[in-house]
Every structure is written in C-alpha cells, then in structure tokens.
Design brief:
single chain; Rossmann fold; alpha/beta; 2 domains
C-alpha cells in the first residue's frame, strides 16, 4: 500500500495553502492524500469554550469541506480524512510516521522571526521521522524549474536529503540544483603552512567539488532523467541556500536535531530557510 502524503488542516489560510500544495504533489507522485484535523478539548470555566462533541463535529465538517474542494480541483486525487482527538503536534507526528511526507502551513517571514512556524510546527519538524514540507500561505510563483538541495558531509550523511530532492524533481520534470557551501577551517586561518599545502593539493574548493560529486553519483545513476546543476560556494550556508532557492520550486535541507534545555532545536541552517525562503521548504531527517 502506498504511503500517503499527510497534511494538517485547521482552517487557517496557511493550512489551506498547504493542503492545496499537498494535493497537487500527491497527484504528481500518484500517491493518496490524507487530511488530518486535530483538536484537544480541555474543560475550563469560560463560556466561549464549545463542548467536545461540538468541537469534534466542527473538525469533521472542516475536513469534509476541504476534501470536497480538493477533489473538485484535482479529479485524479485519492483522498481520505481523519479527525483526531489529540494535540496537533502529537497527532501530526503519529500520522507522519506512516506517511511519505508531512505538509504543514507556514506564515513566512516577518519581524517575529523566531515564532513564524509556531511551537507546534517546530516540534513537528524537529521530531518527525519523515520529511516535513512547510508551505507559505502566499508563496511566490516559481520562476525556475529547479529543486534546490543543500548537501554537506559525505555520501551517507546526505543520502536521504538528496534522494528526496531527486524524487521531487523527477515528479515535477525539474532539475536539481545541488549546493555545497564551505568555509575555511580554522587550522588554515592560523597556519600559513597548512594553507600552502592545501593549495599544492589543488585547493579547498576542488576538494569540496569532489565531495559533492561523490555524493551525487548514486542519484545521477538512479535518476538519469533529472538534470543536475552543481554549485559549490564559500560563505554562510543559510544565506547561500536562500539565494540559490530564490525563484525555485522547493528548497530541501537536512535536519540535525540538537537537544536543548528549552526543547528540541532543528539547527541554524534549517531554521533560517524555514523562516525566510519564499518557496516551500522540505526538512529531511538524517538517518
């Protein structure tokens, strides 16, 4: 049985945009779409809180209306709905475990950069075992047929990230722009002799290009129909990736989860891309 593309729907502009994007992607990949609405009733002593049965019915009505709209827009779509009596983060994480990918809405960038995807969205992205795609409510129209992916480390470090990017590009008939960003290691900054040896060996950029080509080799073989654009650049990873993704169809980054006293963090590069990219951003967990 095919894994579905799962999307969280809560009636907001962001979630409806995410549902539309997920439906289109499901049709491209010939996969089913599963819409999830989560609600959690807590008894509090205020008159505006609805009884649990009323909240549950409202969630079901929202899902059925969203499904009806999507099926009218995409006649080839196979869809299902699931109202869940659970907190949103827990419900989405459970659904993501059995999904091809999870799609969530994002407000995009603004002055409150630290809270754009919200605590729920950040928790989901940081803990999901499957790729999570964040879709802005008003994303820019793509100008280039490219899926941009950030590659770092060796072949094993970026296998899942590259695979997701190539699968997405193949479904869209797009090219993959593989970006590897590097900076001068501290040892070369403080040791002129080390820098001289590196230059004699062909320079650091040559080494970075070779590492990127080695990581791309299995994907080139598996997806021969997907054009590949190679970009190796020195600089800040977040800034370079955001510039490369401008006008692209999607930006794909890996996730290196880091635990902190105040919760799980997703890494500075993924954080920057999620909050400032104008296109959908896929965050893929490393194995």
């Amino acid at each position: 049985m095919d894994r579905a593309i799962v999307v969280g729907v809560d009636g907001s502009e962001e979630s409806m945009a995410a549902a539309g994007w997920a439906a289109e992607e499901a049709v491209r990949r010939e996969l089913p779409l599963h819409l999830v609405n989560a609600w959690y009733w807590q008894p509090v002593d205020v008159p505006i809180v609805q009884p649990p049965d009323v909240q549950e019915q409202a969630g079901k009505d929202l899902l059925y209306l969203a499904e009806k709209d999507l099926n009218e827009r995409y006649p080839a779509l196979r869809s299902s709905v699931e109202p869940v009596r659970e907190t949103a983060a827990v419900a989405l994480l459970k659904a993501a475990d059995r999904a091809e990918m999870l799609v969530v809405g994002s407000r995009g960038h603004s002055a409150l950069a630290g809270y754009l995807i919200g605590s729920c969205g950040q928790r989901v992205i940081a803990n999901s075992t499957r790729p999570v795609v964040a879709v802005r409510a008003r994303a820019d129209e793509p100008a280039r047929q490219e899926v941009v992916v950030g590659q770092q480390g060796g072949v094993d470090d970026s296998r899942e990230v590259l695979q997701f990017a190539f699968e997405t590009a193949a479904a869209r008939g797009a090219a993959v722009r593989a970006v590897r960003v590097w900076s001068t290691p501290p040892v070369f900054v403080y040791s002129a002799g080390s820098m001289w040896l590196a230059e004699q060996a062909g320079g650091l950029e040559r080494h970075e290009k070779a590492a990127l080509e080695e990581a791309l080799a299995p994907m080139r073989e598996r997806f021969p129909e997907v054009p590949v654009i190679v970009q190796v650049e020195m600089g800040s990873p977040g800034q370079v990736l955001l510039e490369a993704a401008e006008g692209g169809q999607m930006l794909v980054v890996g996730r290196r989860t880091r635990r902190a006293p105040i919760g799980t963090r997703i890494g500075s590069v993924a954080h920057a891309c999620l909050h400032h990219a104008h296109c959908p951003v896929a965050v893929v967990p490393h194995s």
